[in-house]
TrEMBL record:
Residues 122-224 form the Metalloprotease TldD/E central domain. Residues 231-447 form the Metalloprotease TldD/E C-terminal domain. This is TldD/PmbA family protein. Gene3D superfamilies: PmbA/TldD superfamily. Coiled coil: none annotated. Pfam families: PmbA_TldD_1st (PF01523), PmbA_TldD_2nd (PF19290), PmbA_TldD_3rd (PF19289).
C-alpha cells in the first residue's frame, strides 16, 4: 500500500499521461485495502482471510465524450498504456452534454481537516482469534442458545487518493475494526437466529467482544416462540438498527441522479416539510473517527456539514457534478466513486436529530403495536414511495414489549410514514446512518 503522498503523486503522473495521450481533462482515483478476518465456530478456528490489494481508476474526457478504465498493476509503463487505452475508448464513446470534471474553482484548496480516521493498530491473527472466541463463548453461554453460526473479528486499513487535471491531489487513510457473532436458539422447526456486530475506526472504541457476544445470544433467545399477528392497522416502532433504513430511502430519493431522472417520490418536495417540525437530518462528513467521514468527495470537492432536512423541511438535493449540470445547479460535495466508473452520489455520517421523548415514553402511549427489529426483502418503490417489507420483532401491549413476532408484512407509503414519524431521544453514533427509536402511526400489518 502506498502512502497518501505517493499515491497522489502516482495519480498525478497518470493524469499527465492521459493529457499527453490526447485527453482534454482527466481524473484518477487510487484505492488500497489491507485486512485480516478471523472466523471461529463452536470454539474452533474455521478460517483466516488476509486480503491486500490496490487498484487505480482513470476517467478521461475528449470533448464531451468520456471513458473510464481501471487496473491493479501500477507499474509506470502499464499506466501509460492505460492512459492511451482510455483516450482511445473516449474518442469512440457517445457525447454526454453533462460530462466533465468538477468545477475548478470549487475544488478543495485548503488543508484537509484531521478526522482521526486511522489508529495505526494492526492486530496479529492470534489477537483477532482470541477476540472472536471471546464473543462466541459469551454468546453460547446465554441460556437458550442451542448452536452457533460463528463469530468473527477483523482489522484492516484503507487508503483513498484522488487527482484531477484541474490541479487537485489528495488522499487519506482509515482503519477499521469489527467483531460479530450469529447465534441459534431453540430446537427443530422452532429455531430462531439473530446476531450482533460492532464496527469502529479505532480499536479503542470497539465494544468488548464479550458484550457483543452476549447481545447476539440474548437477541436469538428473545425470538423464541415467535408467532404471527392478525392483519390490521397499528402503530409500528422501528428499533434503531433497522429504523435507519427509512432515512436511507430519503437519501436515495434526494440524490441528484434520481431527481434528474424524475424517479423520486420526493421529486416535488424541495423546500417542503417531509418530516414533522422539530426533526432534522444532518450529514456530518467531518465527524472524528466517523465511519463515513471524508475530507473531500469523489471529485475533489471539499465536504462540509449540511442539514439535509432542517426542522422537518427538505433543504435540497445531494449532487455530484454531472447531476448538478443536468439540474442547473452547483455540486454539493456528495460525489462518491469507485475505480471502475464515473462518480455516483452518497452521504457521509447521517443523523436524525430532534427526538424529545425517551424510548419508554414513546412506547408508553401504545396500547397495541408492533416493535420491529428485523426487516426482510426490498419491497420499496423509490418512484412512488410505496413500502412493503417482511418484518420480525415484538408485540407491544400497553407500552411493554411482550411476545416475539415473525413472518408479517408491514406496508405504507414513505411520504405518509415520514410525515407521521415520532422520534425518541436515544440516538447513538453507532452506525454510518444513525436514528433513534422511531414510531410510525397507522401502518398496515399483514399477518396470518
Amino acid at each position: 500500500m502506498l502512502s497518501a503522498e505517493d499515491a497522489a503523486a502516482r495519480l498525478q503522473d497518470l493524469v499527465a499521461a492521459a493529457r499527453r495521450a490526447g485527453a482534454d481533462a482527466a481524473d484518477a482515483i487510487y484505492h488500497a485495502n489491507r485486512s485480516t478476518d478471523v472466523h471461529v465456530r463452536l470454539g474452533r478456528l474455521e478460517n483466516i482471510d488476509r486480503s491486500d490489494g490496490e487498484e487505480i481508476g482513470l476517467r478521461v474526457f475528449v470533448g464531451r465524450r468520456s471513458a473510464s478504465v481501471s487496473a491493479s498493476d501500477l507499474a509506470p509503463a502499464r499506466l501509460d498504456a492505460l492512459a492511451e487505452r482510455a483516450v482511445a475508448m473516449a474518442r469512440e464513446a457517445p457525447e454526454d452534454l453533462h460530462a466533465g470534471l468538477a468545477p475548478e474553482d470549487a475544488l478543495m484548496r485548503d488543508a484537509a481537516p484531521d478526522l482521526d480516521l486511522h489508529d495505526g493498530v494492526d492486530p496479529e491473527p492470534a489477537e483477532l482469534r482470541a477476540r472472536a472466541l471471546a464473543a462466541e463463548e459469551a454468546a453460547r453461554g446465554v441460556a437458550g442458545v442451542s448452536n452457533s453460526e460463528g463469530a468473527s473479528a477483523s482489522a484492516g486499513s484503507s487508503l483513498v487518493a484522488i487527482a484531477t487535471s484541474h490541479g487537485f491531489a489528495g488522499g487519506y487513510r482509515a482503519s477499521a475494526h469489527s467483531v460479530s457473532a450469529s447465534m441459534l436458539a431453540g430446537e427443530g422447526g422452532a429455531k430462531q437466529r439473530d446476531g450482533a456486530w460492532h464496527w469502529t475506526r479505532h480499536l479503542a472504541d470497539l465494544d468488548p467482544a464479550e458484550q457483543i457476544g452476549r447481545l447476539a445470544g440474548e437477541r436469538a433467545v428473545a425470538r423464541l416462540g415467535a408467532a404471527r399477528l392478525p392483519s390490521g392497522a397499528m402503530p409500528v416502532v422501528f428499533d434503531p438498527r433497522v429504523g435507519n433504513s427509512l432515512i436511507g430511502h430519503v437519501l436515495g430519493a434526494i440524490s441528484g441522479p434520481a431527481i434528474a431522472r424524475r424517479t423520486s417520490f420526493l421529486l416535488e418536495m424541495e423546500g417542503e416539510h417531509v418530516l414533522p417540525r422539530g426533526l432534522s437530518v444532518v450529514d456530518a462528513p467531518h465527524r472524528r473517527r466517523g465511519l463515513r467521514s471524508r475530507p473531500f468527495d469523489g471529485e475533489g470537492l471539499p465536504t462540509a456539514e449540511r442539514r439535509i432536512i432542517d426542522d422537518g423541511r427538505l433543504t435540497g438535493w445531494l449532487l455530484d457534478s454531472a447531476s448538478a449540470r443536468q439540474l442547473g445547479r452547483a455540486p454539493t460535495g456528495h460525489a462518491v466513486r469507485g475505480v471502475g466508473g464515473p462518480p455516483g452520489v452518497g452521504a457521509s455520517n447521517v443523523d436524525l436529530l430532534g427526538g424529545t421523548l425517551s424510548r419508554d415514553e414513546l412506547l408508553a402511549g401504545i396500547t397495541h403495536g408492533f416493535y420491529v427489529t428485523e426487516l426482510i426483502g426490498q419491497g420499496v418503490n423509490g418512484v412512488t414511495g410505496d413500502y412493503s417489507r417482511g418484518a420480525g420483532g415484538f408485540l407491544i401491549e400497553n407500552g411493554v414489549l411482550t411476545r416475539p413476532v415473525a413472518e408479517v408484512t408491514i406496508a405504507g407509503n414513505l411520504r405518509d410514514m415520514l410525515a407521521n414519524l415520532t422520534a425518541a431521544d436515544d440516538l447513538e453514533h453507532r452506525y454510518a446512518l444513525n436514528v433513534p427509536t422511531l414510531l410510525v402511526e397507522g401502518m398496515t400489518l399483514a399477518g396470518g
